[in-house]
Amino acid sequence: MSSDQQSGDANAGSAPARKPIVPQSASEALRPEPGTPPPAPKKRSRRARSQIVVFANFLFSLVVLVVLAAAAAVYFGKIAFNEAGPTEVTTNYVVKSGTGFAEIADGLERRGIISDARVFKYAVRAYGFQNDMKAGEYEIKAGASMHEIMDLLRSGKSVLHSLTIPEGLTVEQIFERIQEDDVLTGDLPAVLPAEGSLFANTMRFSRGTTREELVKKMQADQKKLVDDIWERRDPSVPLKTIDEFVTLASIVEKETGKADERPRVAAVFINRLNKKMRLQSDPTILYGLFGGKGKPTDRPILKSDLEKPTPYNTYTVNGLPPGPIANPGRDALEAVAHPSQTNELYFVADGTGGHVFAATLEEHNDNVKRWREVEKNRLDEAAKAATGDKNAAPDVDSGN
Prior knowledge:
Residues 1-46, 298-321, 379-400 are annotated as: Disordered. By secondary structure, the chain is mainly alpha-helical.
């Protein structure tokens, strides 16, 4: 046997026997052979199984929910803050001095002016205006939104009330009016201000203003008015001090209620002062007799009153009285500072609310005679009307 043959026999003896090929279907070909282990599951990492990671995921989810809830709250809160309010009619609301912001919000909700105090509080704090609310009485329009109410309370534009003080009242009479006003609060000053030192005009103030504050403002306004007019006075006016100026203005104020007559009345008194004549003003007699309380309405001036000696009776004293007899207004002050240029020394009522003027005593006496006739006729007509006389003429308004 050759070597090649031997070698081939050896190789043939060592090769494994081949199995016969058996045809299989597709599903059988894909089926794992028996004894093949299933694939091992992937193991979770220790990091994934960590409680810290689980907690972090929870926190993240919670934060997302909170942010979404906050965004929703801001959105709907903004809508509520800007939408029309529940009030159907205009309402006044008072914020007292020293009231806290939370108390203001709760009060608005209790009054039905806003729908939700919490929304109002959060929104105002978001704007940073919680410390800007001002005391006062506010007029809140029907349907005003919480935003509009916030702006109103910040503005301080509160409702203003008024008290009219007519020119010519005394300090005591003015104090009576101030005391009777129930919008003002507190007590009046214990000491009466000087006569003539209060501003006579319509005073405007917010609810809660104290009576003492109002009096101080009236004093300041009157001082400013008097100082201004005194500085602009005609240099020929024979008054040495600002007190004399106010005193004569108070007499002019009481003598006539007609603004266009006041410069002429002032001229009469200034002419008399220049001639060293007594002023002979009836209102000074009354102030000397009754002081700041004023003459009772049913008390006439008697002839005997002209001779009663008081420091204010200009029928018995020379020159000006010791002080004002009332609080003069702007017109009377201007009249004394810029009197008419006349030589008249007398005037008397004309029966129509005005006066007739005269430069001589003779002319004046004629005017007085006519006035007495007018007054007598008026009294006669009044008496006839009181007794029911059908033929009596109607009462004539004298204007006094």
